[in-house]
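Practice problem: predict the structure.
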Amino acid sequence: MKFSNPLSLDVFELVLFLVEFSPYIIGGLAVLFVLAVGPLESIAGTKQKSYRKKISVALILPALILAIVASVILASWEDAYVRGYEIFKYPSLRAKLENYIETGNDDLHDILESDKYAPTFGLYEARYLMRDLLRHTVFHTNDHNEGNIDEGYNKGNDWFKATLGETMMYTSGLYPEGTETLKEAQDYKIDYVADAIELKPGMSVLDIGCGWTYLANRLTEKHGANVTGITLSKEQLAYGTELNAKNSAKILLQDAMQLKERDDLPEEGYDRITSLEMAEHVGIRRYQEFLTMVHGMMKDDGVFYFQVAGLRRAWRFEDLTWGLFMGEHVFPGADASCPLGWISTQVERAGFEIQRVHNMGSHYSKTLDHWLDNWHANKQYIEGKYGAVAYRRWEVFLAWSVRAARQGSSTLFMLTLTKAGEERRRIESQNHLVPKDVPKAGANRFL
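Answer:
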């Protein structure tokens, strides 16, 4: 969706550009600020004109940000009106959901699916953007990564057990038949990953963002790999260490962006690297830094499986309001959920070649629906320990995300990557990944 803004550009494209290249933009403005001097008419006049120019330069970026926010607010209201929402009769979708979280009034399913409440951009969204945009998105330091962990992953292992079930996998499952249980879907996903990277017993695997380590556990015990998993969460480390106490998997507490500083990793690199829905936390600004690091840590004939929770390019305003809710309450700092075109540009720029990519957002919706069922089943326990408001806020996250992944507001990209220029590896991967089980010509696959 495109709408007018001060620069006549798509706002999504503009924001991606500003964030990705923010250090250069800020540096350029700093140079302009220093060089902003007036004509040498008089000493007093020169100083006065110089100050005016410096103020004008200093206001460029804040003015641009305010203009973008204002244009999104106005465009969201215009869009809602055109789509037939009664915007003066009902509150916005976010306001209605916040009221549900605080009071428990009304039916959550009706709020989300009735189309009575417009996904307009309002006070909640503007406040979050202005408060956290620069801190989490433009700068995105290592300290920010560590600071975001408690909110994102250290709520308590019982909290996540009540959501994720026995596997404790916080990534999408795959449902080839559509009738799989949550555990079956997660097991299938892990076996799909092993197949995609052509994993063989004895291979070294680095799993970046290993979570509660179910993937590392299954790749080790079922597929015979030598897995090293890294996490920045102390609770995940403790859980994963216990889960893998009787196998060879090694779980490390480590910020992924500082991984190469370790001296206990193999100098020759890893045979295979996996990263499932972790790179969103890297941030737009540091995405290229992360991918370049991964490229350097993988053997030349290696394979990288890269799973990303992304967004659709033809966005709608509900995508934006949902994403800002997620950033504020579920995944702080995870600003690198982006469209496939942007992701593919980044991986190719880092020296990878894409051998296969799938879009499986509807399977994420099924996974989230299973998580929502788990959450409802554990309502009494969670409310008793954490309170009703905390329970309902997480319920909104899950229910709204079921809808978002179902309709395409968010989605799931599954990429199989090799190093560009490695001819033998690309041939082997393409021979392995060639589409199989294609119906023969003339056959009716529906009979």
